UniProtKB/TrEMBL annotation:
Organism annotation: Undibacterium seohonense
SUPFAM superfamilies in UniProt: CheW-like
Residue stretches in coiled coil: none
CheW-like domain mapped to chain residues: 11-157
Highest taxon listed in the record's lineage: Bacteria
Classification via InterPro entries: CheW-like_dom_sf (IPR036061), CheW-lke_dom (IPR002545)
Pfam families with a match to the protein in the record: CheW
Protein name from the UniProt record: Chemotaxis protein CheW
PROSITE patterns per UniProt: CHEW (PS50851)
Length: 162
């Protein structure tokens, strides 16, 4: 409110989420609803990171454990876990299991770190096309900016069957 009164333009267009032990920024235009992880119906003969189907407002939504998809430990499911559904604009009924929703973030207030610095991160993941940038916030936390629209174009992500 004070920034608005002062005429400053504050842009918080990213949703911060934690998946496993890593932090991600998701563009609000690509994010849909955030719902409880609730009941998931398992689907046989699918990869371990494909957790199953959930009913999100009458639509069957595939739920993915992104941490497992990336080759990390499975996301621990507890009461703070949510499913971040993809926006309807992506025409892809899917969602990511997130450990915590961390609220709106403004990447403009973070420092963009180069890829070499990001490689020093504990994550140690190779560069993926859907990871657009990595940022360092004022608390020293590393955030990876993920593009859901690019993720849904990945052939490995699309092939859930064993």
């Amino acid at each position: 409110m004070q920034a608005a009164k002062a005429g400053a333009h504050v842009r918080a267009n990213q949703l911060g989420v934690q998946i496993g032990k890593f932090r991600y920024l998701v563009d609000l235009r690509e994010a849909g609803e955030i719902v409880s992880s609730g009941n998931l119906t398992k689907v046989p003969l699918t990869k371990p990171w494909y957790l199953g189907l959930s009913n999100v407002r009458g639509s069957l939504t595939s739920v993915i454990d992104y941490s497992l998809f990336e080759g990390n430990d499975a996301t621990f499911v507890d009461s703070s876990c949510r499913v971040l559904a993809f926006s309807n604009s992506l025409s892809f009924n899917s969602g990511l299991l997130v450990s915590k929703v961390l609220g709106l973030r403004n990447a403009d207030e973070m420092d963009l770190i180069d890829e070499q610095a990001a490689e020093l991160n504990v994550n140690q993941q190779q560069k993926k096309p859907w990871i657009l940038n990595r940022f360092l916030d004022a608390d020293g936390q590393i955030w990876s900016q993920i593009s859901l629209s690019l993720l849904v174009q990945d052939q490995e992500f699309l092939h859930i069957g064993l």
